[in-house]
Amino acid sequence: MRDSRTICGSLLLFLAFVCTAGAGSGRDPDVVYVGTPYDVVSKMLQMAGVTKDDVVYDLGCGDGRIVVLAAQKYGCRGVGYEIDPERIAASQDNVSRNNVGNLVRIVHADIFTIDLSEATVLPLYLLPEINRRLIPQLEKLKPGSRIVCHNYDLDGIVADEMTTFLSNEDNSTHILWLYTTPLKRR
Ligand SMILES: C[S@@+](CC[C@H](N)C(=O)[O-])C[C@H]1O[C@@H](n2cnc3c(N)ncnc32)[C@H](O)[C@@H]1O
Which pLDDT tens digit goes with each residue over 30-50? Predict the structure, then answer.
């Protein structure tokens, strides 16, 4: 029997296909928006051992929930990068509603073009192929930076830790992998 994580993963892949098939003009997102449940976000931040001195980058930030929650819980800085103007507006609204504009920036950018040298924590909820394409950028992160992948790991890279987490929000099991830089190739 397929477990609920497999169903969630399949849904994201299916939505990605629909999104690509219906691509309009301009640069379309490589992955459709599906928000990480808040209790899973908390677990990801805890796995990364976030402190107020960290800088959290969310590549494809959706509604900005990860960087907003990190700023609220840990007082750290964060930058959310997003390509979809609708999601940028939602993220900016989230930042102002939660009064974390002193700590969090939302940037309209394609994640494959950005400089990650300032980041120390990267939560990733993207697709396997996108994760694979990001590895050369991730390899340039400062030593000691932490990457936490949600439901899709970094192919060919050895994780420090892998855990499953049952979310009370969607009643599904989520798989999380923690990586610390420098990344270790298999
Ligand atoms: C699965 S959602 C994850 C949202 C958020 N990180 C979370 O976990 O709640 C992926 C997000 O990545 C954005 N995205 C896809 N391709 C992108 C790209 N090339 N550059 C920036 N954002 C992108 C999508 O618009 C979408 O909001």
Answer: 999 999 999 999 999 999 999
- The pTM for the full model equals 0.89
What is the residue range of 137's domain?
33-180
Asked, for residue 4, whether it belongs to a domain, the answer is no
Residue with the smallest CA separation from ligand 1 atom 6 is 61
What 23-31 contacts at long range (C-beta under 8 Å, 24+ apart), as own/partner pairs, is 27/83, 27/110, 28/83, 29/60, 29/83, 29/84, 30/60, 30/83, 30/126, 30/127, 30/130, 31/60, 31/126, 31/127, 31/130
- Atom index in ligand 1 nearest the CA of residue 60 equals 12
Compute the distance from residue 1 Cα to the ligand 1 centre, in Å.
29
